[in-house]
Design a protein that fits this description.
Shape: globular
Radius of gyration: 16 Å
Structural class: mainly beta
Largest sheet: 5 strands, antiparallel
Strand order of the largest sheet: 1-9-6-11-4
Distance between the termini: 20 Å
Strand content: 35-45%
CATH class: Mainly Beta
Number of helices: 2
CATH architecture: Sandwich
Oligomer: single chain
């Protein structure tokens, strides 16, 4: 399975809007954990993955806009190392299956991202790949990224796999 972009229904009126976030009939997903992040413009989070207790994810940008990067890290897959790129904005959901490293970069002054995860967070199983890995050739569209210290020290794809 590969990442899947899903358009959701938004119902605007004079008060604002009502938005559907997840419909089981569109994608089978067992949510165990929901989280939210707020990010400034030019923040990149990732590329993150889990070595055990792997997480599938459904992501929704509630405010702002973002580039979402998914990298197939399943060594048994014919698409091992393939990079998938999506532009996210309100009204879209992205399903990211297990066995993908995931990263997201933000374009707007204020960005809010909602995560639905199929597995709980276990820090001891969390790993990552450096965002600017030369082999993956990801074009983030962000000139001066803001990174966490942890993300700035991640190994390359070849060092990891």
């Amino acid at each position: 399975m590969k990442p899947l972009l899903i358009k959701t229904s938004v119902y605007p009126d004079n008060r604002g809007f009502f938005k559907e976030l997840y419909l089981k009939k569109k994608i089978k997903f067992n949510c165990k954990f929901t989280a939210m992040s707020s990010s400034k413009k030019n923040v990149i989070r990732g590329l993150h993955y889990q070595i055990k207790k792997k997480q599938a994810k459904i992501l929704s940008v509630l405010k702002g806009s973002a580039i979402d990067i998914c990298v197939n890290i399943d060594k048994k897959s014919k698409n091992f190392g393939k990079v998938y790129k999506f532009i996210l904005k309100p009204g879209l959901l992205l399903y990211v299956p297990k066995n993908f490293a995931h990263g997201i970069g933000f374009f707007s002054r204020e960005n809010i991202l909602l995560y639905h995860l199929s597995e709980y967070r276990y820090q001891k199983y969390e790993r990552g790949i450096i965002y600017n890995d030369k082999k993956l050739k990801i074009k983030w569209g962000i000139k001066k990224p803001i990174l966490s210290k942890r993300d700035s020290l991640m190994p390359t794809f070849d060092e990891t796999f």
